[in-house]
Amino acid sequence: MSxxxxxxxxxxxxxxxxxLFSWRRPTPAKRSLGSPWLIITNVLAIFIISxxxxxxxxxxxxxxxxxxxxxxxxxxxxxxxxxxxxxxxxAFLTIWIVKTKKLxxxxxxxxxxxxxxxxxxxxxxxxxxxxxxxxxxxxxxGLAPSVDKGNQxxxxxxxxxxxxxxxxxxxxxxxxxxxxEILVRGYLYSGLRQKFKFVPAMVLTxxxxxxxxxxxxxxxxxxxxxxxxxFVLSLVLVYLRENTGALYAGxxxxxxxxxxxxxxxxxxxxx
Length: 271
Description:
Blueprint: H1 3-21, H2 36-66, H3 76-100, H4 116-143, H5 162-193, H6 198-212, H7 224-244, H8 248-265, H9 267-270
Helix pairs in contact: 2-3, 2-5, 3-5, 4-7, 4-8, 5-6, 5-8, 6-7, 7-8
């Protein structure tokens, strides 16, 4: 390689690094999704509204069928419809907001069909995520060994038969990657990316996503491990969104991660 060619390569790499890690705003987008505060507020509103409406609809259904609205954790069918309605509403409201602004769905990563390249990048992203998760796990064990590492409450506490298992599988492995990716990496990240450079948009998106997955563990303390894991996952998902220009690779990585968690959580029932 000639000296000029080597210098050009180094310059290209340097410019790319500066572009990714700069905290300056990019050139203002002609098709803006709104201000960062508006986008974050909309995301929180969509999350709360979709969960609330799902709970109301399922509660009414349980009251009609059983005469009361309690016992959701023991009824896989009710839990399935809760997740279906919540994730479906989240995706619908996100797309509705984009449409009301008269913007194409390509703005949130839904402008093209999946391609084979999405699969290979998803597999690489999935491998990268678990490498990062292993590294972060060792760091947490060394720096904060007291962090609560209990299991998340994913619901579906009473599965009886193959139908219940299929309902749980669809509700936990298939539906969340669709609804959450459209809302978070589609709307939230894309909107922030129009205002910020890659790294700040990625970090802010991932912090919000991780905070949304914080739960109370068995000791009544916050289950920080769940928030940290989903933060790291979001870093990979955001990178795939940026790199591919679409949501499909991220959806697949999200689904694969949920599949691993599903297999571990329900190992005694499935196998």
